[in-house]
Structure formats: structure tokens, C-alpha cells
Amino acid sequence: MTTLHQVSRAKASAPPVLDLRRIRADFPILGHLSNGKPLVYLDNAATSQKPQSVIDTLTRYYQAENANIHRGVYELSQHATLAYERARAKIQRFINAAEPHEVVFVRSATEAINLVAHSYGRSHLHAGDEVIVSVMEHHSNLVPWQLVCEATGARLRVIPMTDAGELVLEEYERLFNEKTKLVALVHVSNSLGTINPVKQMVETAHTNGVPVMVDGAQGAPHLPIDVRDLDCDFYALSGHKMFGPTGIGALYGKAALLDAMPPYQGGGEMIRSVRFEKTTYAQAPAKFEAGTPHIAGAIGLGAAVDYLHNLPWDLIQAHEYDLLTYATESLAAIPGVRLVGTAREKASVASFVLDGVHAHDIGTILDQEGIAVRTGHHCTQPVMERLGIPATARASFAFYNTREEVDALVAGVLKVREVFG
After folding, report:
1. What CATH number should be reported for the domain holding residue 182?
2. Does the predicted model carry a pTM greater than 0.90?
3. How far is residue 52's CA from residue 24's CA, in Å, rounded to a whole number?
4. Beta strands at 374-376 and 392-396: parallel, antiparallel or unpaired
């Protein structure tokens, strides 16, 4: 897989050329003001903005196509069903899954991970078994495994990381033994930006006969995802982080695994037949999509995938790396600023602390300048504990951000220094 770091090396002799004016025009919110100043949106790791094509798709669905799916013989329902299933096929192609039914629609990456934890995990974990996670996991890929371990008597083993925010692969390899039943691993760290060597880590796990769940919430917006090349067993996607609607996500699972897993929730649509004596269940993915799904969200996510598919990804990746490099160098030049997360392979996250100033104060003053960044522990409290800090300010970039917005961020941080002396 090509990383932003590798792209930068290949294109170091010439800056990326991207029609940012056209791209930014696709995102209407970027033309708005915040506190009376042009919005500088640098919180893309929390949620990304939506192109007009996605907004129009949602509006069109509710205005002209709204109907429940899979259940109606009338034309409107059939049109909605077709659009919903087309969205599934779009995601299949986007991540290069083998078949559409390897894609399960869920509310979020969080629900995707919970589905695997409570369906696959509860079926395969027993007292004394072990689940490997990393120290840099988002709480969404940590707490579900804690819950399942508490219920089954299994326990967590943790991959450590360096001060730079890189996983210690030698220690990862030593964690495997006959009790290891699953690895749950983040593709890109939301608080550090680290791009983990997922393909290599999956190969190590499979050599030991262990399946791998990958949290791809931060990976899909920045990297080309090929689940068959990664050979991961599960991969979680978050719609709202990849320029789609909130409340929708997807779980990729290898067909054989999904077919063997029990349902996660019960209700309508996930059944084959229901009797008081016994209920039989539908095949995946329907087995995991109980009740009326977020139909508009799935169709909107399909529109987001269409938008991403039409982007020049070589230029996008080079541009994002240029932004990250420029921001890293510019922030590091400010007296009192310390960057948090300096891995060699990074995506578009620049986290930092400022001597003598709490992260929330940084965020408050930047907000007064129209600059939106995230402050806090970013749902990665073990990372903060490992690094000995309570919180960071985090600027996270998307392809629609500009160097001028980085300059605004730097000017804002300088103002923070001035305010706090």
C-alpha cells in the first residue's frame, strides 16, 4: 500500500498540483463564517465535511424516493431497495471486497467493531483466551473487547509503542501463543496519525492462525483500501469520516466468517422464518441488518464513495502529505510547542501541546479566530497515559484544506502564546 510518506518521497522534486478552488467549491460549508471569520475546518478526524453531491442525494431520496426497502412490491420501494443495494456494491468496489454480501451496513465503525466483538468474539472466546490490541486503539476498538473479555473470561494483551508513536513489532510478535484468538488493530491512529503496517501485521497473525479486525475509520479517508491485499478478516468503515452522512458505516467481513457468525441483533428483515418453537436466520449481510436500516445514509454513503472515486488520488495523497509536512514544520518552529506523534509513516494528523497552556484553552482561542480543531484525549486515553500528557490539540486535514489554513492555524497558536504570556 502506498502511504503519504512514500508519495512525498516520489514527488519531492515538484509540489502537488490540485485544483483546490474547484474541490472546495464542492463543499458548501467551507464558504461559511465562524465567529465572524472565514471557517478554517481542521477537525476532519472527528468528522469530515460533505460535498454537495452527497447533500443532494440525501435531499432527493427524502423528496422523491423515500420508501422502506426489501419488503414492498410497489415501484417506490423497489427503487429504494435498488439504490440501497447499489450503495453496498459501491462500497464493495471501493475496498475491493470479493462480493457485495461481504459488506454489512451498520451505524458506524463503532457498531461494526461491536458486531464483531459480540458475534464473533462471544462465539470464539473462552476463559483464558487472549485478544491482542494496541496501546493506540480508539476506545471504540478497546472497550468492546474489554466487555467481551469480561463476559467470557478472556483477557487483553497490549502491543506497546515507542515515544514517536510507532508500534513495537517485535513485542507484537512475542504476544502470540496458543491462547491468542484475535487481533484488533487500528489502521491509522486518530490521535497520532500513525499509519500502522497492517498488511505485515495481518500476515504475522495469520501465520499464527489468528484472524484480524482492522479499525479503518481513519484509514479510508486518506488511503486506498484493498481488503483482499491486506488480507484482513474484518474492516470497519465510518461514513461520516469519509465525506458521507452521519449514522452510517460499514463492516467488511470475509464471507466464510460472516456466514458462520450468529446474529448480532434480532428483529425484522434478518430472519428466514419465525416460529415460537424456532427461528431461522437469513444469510449475511441481512442476518446482521435487523430492522429498518439507515436507508438514506447508506445511499448517501454510496454518493460519497462516488465522489471519492472520481478524485485524482495520487495528487490527493501528495497534497495531504504536503499539508502535514508544512503544518509539522510550522508548528514545530513555535517556541513552546511540542508535537505529539512523530512516526515515520503518518496520515493527516498534527497533534501538539503548548507549554503552560491546557489544550482546551488552545481550542477556545483558536475558535475565536474561526479555526476548528479538536482538543482533549481524542478517545485514546491509554495513549495520553503512555505519553504522560492529559490532552492535546489536534489539527486534522482533508484534501480540501490549504496551506493558507495552516498559516491561519499557526497565527492562532502564536496568539495563544501571546494571551498566556
Report:
1. 3.40.640.10
2. yes
3. 10
4. antiparallel
